[in-house]
Amino acid sequence: MFGYDKIEFSFSFSWIIFVLLILIALAYSVYVYRFTLPPVSNLKRLFLALLRFLALTVLILVFFEPVLTLVKKVKVQPVNLIFVDNSKSMQIKDGTQRVEKTLSLLDELSKSDLKNNLLFYSFGSDVKQIEGNNFSNSLKFDESSTNFTKIFNPELFRDKNISSISIISDGVITEGSTPTYQAEKFGKPVFTIAVGDSSRKKDVAIKNVLFNEYIYAETPTTISATVINNGFSGQLITASLFEGNTLIEQQQVTLDNSGVNSINFNYTPKVSGEKKLAVRISNLDNETSTANNVYPFFLNVRSNKIKILIIAGSPSPDLTFVKNALQRENNFQVSTLTQVVGSSFLEINSNQKIDSADVIFLLSFPTKETSQEIFNRIRDKILNKNTPFFIMLNNSVDLAKLSQISNVLPVAIQNFRGDYLIAQPDLNSDETTNPLISANININDWNNLPPILYSAGTINAKPESKVLSFIKVETNRLKQPLIVSRNLASKRSLCFIGKDFWKWKLLTAAKNIGLYDNLILNIAKWLSVTDEQKQFNVRTIRKFYSAGDDVEFVAELYDEALNPLNDAEVEIKIKTSDSEFDLQLNSIGNGLYEGKIKLMKPGDYNFTATSKLNGKTYKTDSGRFNVGDIDIEMTDTRMNYELLNDLSYRTDGKLFMPEEVNSLISELRKSINKVSDEKIVESQFKLWSNEWMLVIAVLLFSIEWFIRKQSGML
Length: 714
Fold this sequence. Notes:
The structure is a single chain. Helix content is 23%, strand content 37%. The chain has 16 helices and 34 strands. The strands form six sheets. It has a nine-stranded mixed beta sheet, sandwiched between helices. Helix 2 packs antiparallel against helix 16 and helix 7 packs across helix 13 (515-528).
């Protein structure tokens, strides 16, 4: 019908009630025009009744939230997506001829009988399609990072009938996270082609450094470095911690027979601010590489402890579990206000606690019983003093009071239906590397979480917000937000939608899953980070760059009312010990500016950014970054066979070596045969949210009124 295989019309409420209301509207319209003053012709009375009936029908439709679903089948040729690692590590000389074998493999694939079913992409810091299979010109193998998560960007898969994904790489990830979760979720086989030598070379390297990103001045902290060695057990090395060029601590370490040493350094920052630190180990003779003997990093030192206030609409398990999680952090001072009878609180000194809070957690608050006086104080704290906040939204919340802070909420709430759905989290694949949901959390643990009660209704994330997780009900994935964050002009907020999130802690405790506590702590730490520059913020995409990389800058600029400013001049002066560079950023809309510069000379760089309006200085910002201290692509020379094999195994794919091109082509051919060339395309139209529905209703009532007026009717 009309070129569609299926046309479906659904409502949010019962069809029976809808039909009943339509019959009532019909009866009412006929009843109103059974007699008229003055009398008019039967045809005119019938036409007026029809107009009234149609207008009422449109209004009833809007109330019942109709959704029109159109389904059709289209012919789409199955394709295999081939992703080629274009990073510097592919040039490592380990005797396996990485570049030559990769180009040879691509050439054979492009000449095979599957050439019309193959799409080629390069990936490194980003993904780019290789046009015309021009591999020699498109692949320079010079990108400074390798990000596997970019491969599984849903935008790449849009409008494609994908049969499989193939990844040609050494498997060494230098940016982003392990893509196993996204690959499994994608649901197609992933074939990996392992390039390089997987045998361990004779080497000593700093594998990782663990530290708290935000620590406090004059508060001791531990910085833990993991040093691995192969072929040097029993030898003595010197391990050192530096702040800038100042030696903080030095240790003599005997390399362990197990191949792994954990070295702890004590660090007590004296003043607040951003600090550049580095762990270094001494070089040994006959090392394969010394590029991995230094590990630089930046951390932020804060001036004092953070006061966190939890305000709950009533006593609840959610309150208890959130409080217990926050109290695990020594640098948090946690207090509570629990609403009990009427608008009173169980605790005392409510005004003092609100006024002194650095971060506020609102749990099922405010309620209808909450006094306007106390909420005015909280509203002023959030709106006028830019206090970051977390809010747990559910049916207990009074939407009328909440509307007073709607401008700073991460979501726009039209209504709560009053019922709950039993739902589980469904992580947004675009945000799996977001530290809020990944720091100290195993991404796969999200699949083991028990369901919570999700507040059904019309709730949408604002355009500037990030949806960290949607929901799934049984096996159905719904694009309804569950966890949403917002960071606009240094105003931070985050919300959970629903209740009984405490089950994520209680029902996973037996499995030793620390996801709940770590998630709450991640949220509190993220909320407590405040920028000095409220209206102007400039940063580099990364803190460390290799010599010759493009250093990318991003700036945000707002007026005093936090409206984006798009017509400013943003200039950046970049300085090192003996050089200075100028960079002009370009406006890309919505208050955002961007630009990049290539810097060849290694060293620490400081930058000062100035925004100008009408030729006058408006706001300034500053920061720092490093070039050349570390070339992360060259620190791990070994092909990561384990990652590539696990990725293919978990997705029902296979791992191949470059020489096994015929076997790879055979598997690609099988994957194509398993996929139908018919693709179901489903389109949904929320008719009730279309402004034309109201326009039609108003137009029908207007025509009716005009005819009545012309006829002299009352």
